[in-house]
Specification:
single chain; alpha/beta; 8-stranded parallel beta barrel; 12 helices; 47% helix; binds prephenic acid
């Protein structure tokens, strides 16, 4: 009998390939079903014990000519791909996922519609220090036709000996001044037990970077009827950031703004490294509006304009910037806040390049 031709052998391989592919796809469907079951039952996706059992069984029944190590390697690759498939499906099923909710979420704060196309600017002092200080910034915001006044009343400071903020007194100043100038208040809350009491004073609740994985606070923020501005943790991955937002949505609050504020890297020229990639990735993978806090990302005033331009060019829906009437005497973040004329110049440049901002 004549040897089969190369062409005939390849034809047979093509058929085998098609067969393997059919089985791989069938296997993947079963894997996805297991993934859904596990998600419902709260079981870990990765199951090394089960994987080892399967590998041992396959090695034991391996007819050759591939040796056991090769068979184990091939199947281990299939398991890893299966795990990846389950993970992808789970991510697409998240409430924050754009796959699940294709339309952009627009968060409304008074007349401002964050995520509707016109960039929003959130500006104000790092910490609320006094009526006069807050009023000076509020007045500039009104003159510029802006609405969103930020100010820290509860301050999460690295050292317990640093200024901790005025607390509820600070919130009262913010509310009073905001009402006087027709503005809306964005302010951070540190503890779930303060949330309810703070609501009369706050229009957007900020959850700060250090609290991004404070799950009790995230859950509590899910139960309020106020938008939440969630900052990315100092060392949080984009995936962890999305899951933090998922907590708030899963507990009933759909109005979440994601805020990139720089991440920790080896670089010391800036306080943090602005992860500009996070902006288009969050816009693509979630339907939530994205804000960029240029002040905290930079930790220095001289690069706030280019960072803001980069953020808007990358698709950010909002910018946050710290403004203080006299930054040099500020009780916190003295070296990174801009004064009012600097803020106006910054805003003018943004408007010149990007048109209207609110
Ligand atoms: C599967 C995938 C990932 C797990 O680590 C173990 C096994 C597989 O591909 O066989 C399926 C699965 O999720 C499971 O059997 O629990």
């Amino acid at each position: 009998t004549a040897e089969r031709t190369l062409q005939a052998l390849r034809k047979e391989l093509d058929e085998i390939n098609a067969e393997i592919l059919r089985w791989l796809s069938r296997r993947a469907e079963v894997v996805l079903e297991i993934g859904r079951l596990k998600l419902r039952q709260g079981i870990n996706r990765f199951d090394p014990v089960r994987e080892k059992e399967m590998l041992d069984r396959l090695a034991a029944m391996n007819p050759g000519p591939f040796d056991d190590t090769t068979i184990r390697h091939i199947f281990k690759t299939i398991f890893a791909a299966s795990l990846q498939l389950q993970k992808k499906e789970e991510e697409a099923s998240l409430l924050v996922s754009r796959k699940r909710h294709p339309e952009d979420t627009v968060v409304e704060v008074g007349p401002v519609r964050i995520g509707a196309g016109v960039p929003a600017v959130v500006a104000g002092p790092c910490s609320v220090e006094s009526y006069e200080q807050t009023r000076a910034v509020a007045e500039a915001l009104r003159e510029e036709g802006l609405t969103l006044l930020r100010g820290g009343a509860f301050k999460p400071r690295t050292s317990p000996y640093d200024f901790q903020g005025l607390g509820f007194d600070g919130l009262k100043i913010l509310r009073e001044v905001a009402d006087e100038f027709g503005l809306k208040v964005v302010s951070e809350i540190l503890a779930p037990e303060d949330l309810e009491m703070a609501l009369p004073y706050i229009d957007v609740v900020q959850i700060g970077a250090r609290n991004m994985q404070n799950f009790a606070l995230l859950k509590a923020a899910g139960h309020i009827d106020r938008p939440v501005l969630l900052k990315r943790g100092l060392s949080a991955t984009i995936e962890e950031f999305k899951y933090a937002a998922e907590y708030i949505l899963a507990h009933g609050n759909p109005n979440v703004i994601l805020c990139e504020r720089g991440i920790r890297t080896f670089e010391r020229a800036t306080r943090n490294t602005l992860d500009i990639s996070a902006v288009p990735i969050l816009k693509a993978e979630t339907h939530l509006p994205v804000c960029v806090d240029v002040t905290h990302a930079a930790g220095r005033r001289d690069i706030l304009l280019p960072l803001a331009k980069a953020a808007l060019a990358a698709g950010a829906d909002a910018l946050m910037i710290e403004v203080h009437p006299q930054p040099e005497v500020a009780l916190s973040d003295a070296q990174q806040q801009v004064n009012i004329p600097e803020f106006r110049a910054w805003l003018g440049e943004i408007r010149r390049m990007f048109g209207a901002v609110v």
